[in-house]
Amino acid sequence: MKLPILTFCTAAIVSNAGAVVLTTLPTPMNQGGMIHLNIALNGNALTVDPEPGTPDLKPLAAWKPGDTLDPASPWYSTLDPTQGAGLFNSQFGLVLFNSDPLPPGTKIMVGWVSGTPGMEAYQWKNTEPQLFTGILGTDGSPASWDWGSVAHGMMHPLFVMPAGSSGSANVTLSFTLADGDGSPVSGYTPAQTTMNFTVVPEPSALLLSAAGCLFGLRRRRASSIPS
User: Fold this and answer.
1) pLDDT digit of tens for each residue in the chain (227 aa)?
2) How many Å apart are CA 86 and CA 159, to the nearest integer?
3) What are phi and psi of 87, to 5 degrees?
4) How many C-beta atoms surround the C-beta of residue 100 within 10 A?
5) 104 lies in a domain?
6) Are 32 and 92 spatial neighbours (Cβ–Cβ below 8 Å)?
7) Is residue 121 classed exposed, middle or buried when 0-12, 13-18 and 19+ CB atoms within 10 A define those classes?
């Protein structure tokens, strides 16, 4: 009677029915919806008004159980479950909202003030040509990032924590009015905000299946021991 149990467990461990190789990342809407950081220039001061929300940093195994990423995609080595298996979220979106016009020749620079150790940030794009570039100090990039490079359009940085992280995480960013060279413009006050995340590790389907099998075998063995 043990053979059927072992056969079932083996099938459970190796099964990955319905898995899909994803060519794009889950979007902010797939992750629970956008959370806007409404940034504005009011007179001589920048302000930031974040919408409420504490999004989850989760691995792909939690966003899309069983799926993997296309090895040709630029984020494959960082986020695929078989590679870096990073925990990620891109719900926070930078948007210029109800703002005075920026003075000619100026732009907004986004700066990394502080963050949970291990946190990384990327500028990314699903559409071709796909983009996955470290910003705000990630992969040796400058700690200050030129938001003007996307013409101050809505931009959702993708934040990543290492596999195995848990608990909570945060990032504090600054927003500074700068000239064309990226230097702060005198007479204008910068702004900053802190974004909080819940870090949700997710055991792989393989580990869950294996654990269930081991539990079932232990129960079967215990029940077979004479009293």
Assistant:
1) 443 433 333 333 334 557 899 999 999 999 999 999 999 999 999 999 999 999 999 999 999 999 999 999 999 999 999 999 999 999 999 999 999 999 999 999 999 999 999 999 999 999 999 999 999 999 999 999 999 999 899 999 999 999 999 999 999 999 999 999 999 999 999 999 999 999 998 664 334 433 444 444 344 434 444 44
2) 10
3) -95, 130
4) 11
5) yes
6) no
7) buried
Domain count, the chain: 1
Asked if the structure places residue 210 within a domain, the reply is: no
**150 occurs within a structural domain:** yes
Q: Which domain holds residue 122?
A: 34-203
In a domain, 226, yes or no: no
Tokens of 89: 């979220």
